[in-house]
Amino acid sequence: MIHKIKALYDEGCGLSQREIAKVLDVSRNTIRKYLAMDSDIISDTRHDLSRTKALDEYRSHIIHLLQSYPNLSAVKVLRKLKESHGELGVSSRTVRRYVEELRATISTKQARYYQPVIDNAPGLQCQVDGGELRRVSIGGVESTVYFVVFVLSHSRLMHVVASPTPVDTSLFIRMHDAAFQYFGGCPAECVYDQTKLVVLHEQYRELTLNNGFHEYATHAGFTIRACEGYDPESKGKVEAGVKYVKQNALYGEVFKNWYDLESYLANWLDTVANIRIHGTTGEAPRVRYDSVEFVRMRPYRTPELVHKNGQVVVTRKVDKTGLISWQSNKYSVPMIYQGSVVGVLADKHELRIVDCITNDVVATHTLSSEKGQLIKNRHHYRDMNEVVSSLENDVIAVLGKPYGNKLCTLLKNTSPKIYKDQLRGLKLVLSRTKEEMEPALLERLSQQSSLTVTRLEAFIEAFLHQKARQQACTELVSEECCQQEDLLHKYARLMEVGGQSALH
Predict the structure, then answer these.
(1) Is the pLDDT of residue 503 over 60?
(2) Do 249 and 263 reside in the same domain of the chain?
(3) Residues 180 and 289 in one domain
(4) What is the pTM (predicted TM-score) of this model?
(5) What is the residue range of 437's domain?
(6) 222 lies in the same domain as 280
(7) How many other β-carbons are positioned within 10 Å of the β-carbon of residue 380?
(8) Over 316-370, what HEC string results?
(9) pLDDT digit string (tens) for 70-93?
(10) How many domains are there within the chain?
């Protein structure tokens, strides 16, 4: 272009700047800039490797589009770039020239059907792979943990769903549903190896897909991409993610039960895996996802085929207080599910919360028609193995049957909703003040119209202070009496001595 401008201008003997601009279809400012440049400067500029073009940042994505669709027009390329990256700040002419240059330098022959994931295309692809780790201690028993890892290629945001049993098609679909709920959206395509959960058969790169999973993918709105056989490098990000889950998350850990493992994994994702600074992107996956990729994800709604008995099964994460969010309200879940993911079944009147692995109903609530409500089942926050009668017997063993029964009845009548907590508190107070619980104090407590553990502690403290004061006063009076008797005795001796002297 620069040489054409110089030749047409011919040191002022050729065409004018206006005419050159019309011939080359460029602006007069560009013509004026290059004509004013020295030849040596032009040569140095062309060989300056540090120079970049506005679209170099999206070069990999454009190459991916051209290799996948060789006849794609520059206009369509620009539209796809805007869909993935937003406004680019370049003209359509700039895109057309950049695409023409790339067409001349890259091969559009498709050596293989599926291409590796392009990092700088937010919301484009998610890599999916499964793994297993044996000899994991769960409840004192060495067990095998089966899991599936989901990694978004742009942000590297990760989600992991684990299972105590091998993954079948139904569970594989529910795992995808949980992952997309966690991401808050669905990518354009997912990349897999040739697992039977996705690909039943391949011949001449013609794939026979698993009908059940293919139906789910169609309803969910993402494209299935399968790697060639024995080619794990095509999804290297999730391959690394599987190793990361094994070595960083599960290896060397001991779990009380399966729900403890699920809670641990959920916490590990939020506090370790997705907030670490990624070695390739240089950013935390969660930050990179929230700032760029989230808005590029496709909306996701659980398809009907994931339904159970005609009802929609939606997953929700249980927060650290044992609550899930549903239609602007909060509902309680047994605390054993704290930090894990549960399924939710809802109809017009009732909300049922189910275990995602066993499909057992673990909690039931009446749906609230209001907003911003907190609906709790107190039993979800209690140790149900601890029986009230056992606590009452412990109190009676310390105080005796008459006073023990009276104090338990007072606590129950005063605070019936927290009676078990009050009994636990009373038991703790008695363990510290057992020696001070005299009949006089117990009689005074049993005559109260109402009683709580805090008031009981105040009574005990006041009683002990009063007892200490009385004892101090008794000791003081006794000491004063002794002193008075001693003075009288000395005075009598003195008078006796004085009298004897007078007689002499």
Answers:
(1) no
(2) yes
(3) yes
(4) 0.47
(5) 387-504
(6) yes
(7) 18
(8) EECCCCCEEEECCEEEECCHHHCCCEEEEEECCCEEEEEECCCCCEEEEEECCCC
(9) 778 888 888 888 888 888 888 888
(10) 4
